[in-house]
Predict the 3D structure of the following.
Amino acid sequence: MLFRDRREAGQILAQMLAAYAGRPNVLVMAVPRGGVPVAFEIARTLGAPLELFSTTNCRVEVPTARCPGEENAEDPSTTLPIVLLVDDGLTSELILRLAVTSLRQQPIGRLLLVLPVTTPAAHTELLKLADEVVCAHSPEGARAVGQWYQDFSPTTAAEVRELVQRLARLPVVKPAQPAT
């Protein structure tokens, strides 16, 4: 699978994550800079907030509201944030290992690592760190993330700012109410 660019990779991953759409306790967290265009598409599609992961200030701030139709408000799977940690790909898990270590010190419910592409070996290692790994493509012999994109030009700071601001202007997606 060859992605046109990071945005297309995010659109594909968003389809894979459709079960999280409209849930009030989902947070999409991007690993800057390359993970931001991927995460933007996921956050936009799911109607979830987007934050940038920072190694200097890692705090998860998501309302811990109960999902509609959930009977047990004490169940952490319905109240604590579900964090979707997104990057543009992975051939080495060093940065994500750091991010997971930081996030695990926060009150979160589930942690999903979301990547367009990773090696099978890295995928196996990541499963030891997260509750779930969502990956669109896991080819043998991947050496560089960029080989799986037609356009893998660097993500600029200006692009990151523009995407974060653009998402902030979008209307909030409210979860569907259960049928009565």
